[in-house]
Amino acid sequence: MNFPQGIYLDNNATTALAKEAKALMEPFLGEQYGNPNSLHRFGTETHTALSNAIDEIYKGINASDRDDVIITSCATESNNWVLKGIYFDLLRFGEKNHIITTEVEHPAIRATCEFLEELGVEVTYLSPNQEGILCVEQVAEAITPKTGLISIMWANNETGLINPIEEIGKLARQKGILFHTDAVQAIGKIPVDVQKAQVDLLSFSAHKFHGPKGVGGLYIRDGIPLTPLFHGGEHMHGRRSGTLNVAGIVGMGEAMRLAVQYLEYENTELRALRDRLEDALLQIPDVLIIGDRRIRVPNTILCSIRGIEGEAMLWDLNKAGIAASTGSACASETLEANPVMVAIGADKELAHTAVRISLSRYNTKEEIEYTIEVFKHSIARLRQISSTYSS
Ligand code: PLP
Question: Is the per-residue pLDDT at 339 higher than 70?
C-alpha cells in the first residue's frame, strides 16, 4: 500500500487537528501559560488570541454580538447543559414538562432525556420518516400546551442525513417553544446560521471540524436564561465556571475559520469524492446506501452490504489500512444492530451489516480509488467465506 499513514475515513467520529490550528495553539501549551483571569502580563497576553478565536466562532455560526457563545469541554457537556438547565428553569415546575426529540439523537441527548423522564419530564421521541429525516409536520403534531423544548439534531452522525432545521426553527419560534439543535455533524460540512435557522440553543464540538479534542461550545440566544451546569467563579459571564482552556479555544477558533473557508470545497470537491466512492459501491451487488445523497452532508456514506457483518467488513478494511466504522464510535462496543437503520425501517439483518464511511478535506482521489478496490476484494472474499460455511 502506498499510504503509510493509512486512510482515515472515520471523520464523523473525530478529525485530524488542522496544522494551522496546532500552530496557533502551541505557544499556549508552552511559554504562554497564564490564566486569562489573572491581572498580570501572563494572564493578559492570552487575551488577543482568545478574543480572535471567539470572534471566529461567532462569525462561523453567525451569532449576533448580543448572543452568548459559551465554551464547554465537548458537545456532550453542551447537550447535557441544555436539557438539565431547561429542566431547572422551566420543566420542573410542571406547567411545561414536555420535550420533543428524536429516536436517533446522539446518546448525549437520549440518555439525558431518559434521566429527565425519571424526574417526571415527558419526552416524545420522534422516528425519522421513510427518507430518514424528521419533517416539520411530525414536530407540529407532537406539540402540546406543555411542550417546553424541542431538541433535534441538525445532521445525523450515522447517516449524515440533514433535518429541515430552518422549518423546525420557524415553527418553534411561532409557537414560543425553545429550540435546541445538536449541530456537531453540521459545522464544517454545511452552512450553519443560527439567525436564519431561528435556533435558541446550538451545540458544537471542535474535534469534529479539525479542532482539538476536549473543547466545544453552546450558543445561547440573547435573553435565554439557562441555569449553569458548573457553578463556581464568574467565568464566561457566570454561565460556565472553570479556568478557560486557552489552547483549546484558540485551536477551535482557527478550526472554525478554516471550516467556513472550506465549506465550498466540501460542497464540491469533497462531495465529488464521496459520490465517486458511493457510485462504485453501488455497482457491487446487494450494497445499499442509506438516504438520498442530496439531503446528506457531503462527507458521509452509511452503507449496508447484505450477507456481510459490519464488523467483519471493518476488520478487513483495517487490515488494508482503512479506518471506517459501523456507526457512532460511542456505540461501537455494544456490537448491536445500527439503531439509526432500525429506526428508519431497515430490517434487522440489514442493520447488522452497516458500515459508515466519513471523509474529510484531507482525503485524496488516490485514497478513494484504493478504498474502492479494497471494498471490491473484501466483499468478494467475505462472500466466498460465508458461502463456503453455509454450503
Ligand atoms: N452529538 C453528535 C451528533 C455527535 O456525533 C457527537 C459525537 O460523536 C456528540 C454529540 C458528542 O460530541 P463530543 O465528543 O464532543 O462530546
Answer: no
**Taking a C-beta distance cutoff of 8 angstroms, is the pair 208, 186 a contact?**
no
Q: Which of 82, 185, 245 maximizes ligand 1 atoms within 8 Å of its Cβ, making it the mutation to test the pocket?
A: 185
Domain that holds residue 184: 19-260
Q: How many Å lie between the centroid of ligand 1 and the Cα of residue 205? A: 7
pTM to 2 decimals?
0.95
Shared domain check, 12 and 25: no
Q: Which atom of ligand 1 is nearest to the CA of 78?
A: 16
Question: Does the pLDDT of residue 341 top 80, yes or no?
Answer: no
The verdict on residue 129 lying in a domain is yes
**pLDDT digit string (tens) for 204-233?**
999 999 999 999 999 999 999 999 999 987
Residue 263: pLDDT band (50, 70, 90) is very high
In a domain, 391, yes or no: no
Q: Positive or negative CA dihedral for 90, 93, 94, 97?
A: positive
Q: Domain check: are 272 and 213 in the same one?
A: no
The domain boundary, picked from 209, 237, 260, lies at 260
Answer yes or no: 330 catalytic: yes
Q: Are strands 7-8 and 122-126 parallel, antiparallel or unpaired?
A: unpaired
Could you tell which of 157, 205, 218, 297 is best to mutate to test the pocket of ligand 1, judged by most ligand atoms within 8 Å of the CB? Answer: 205
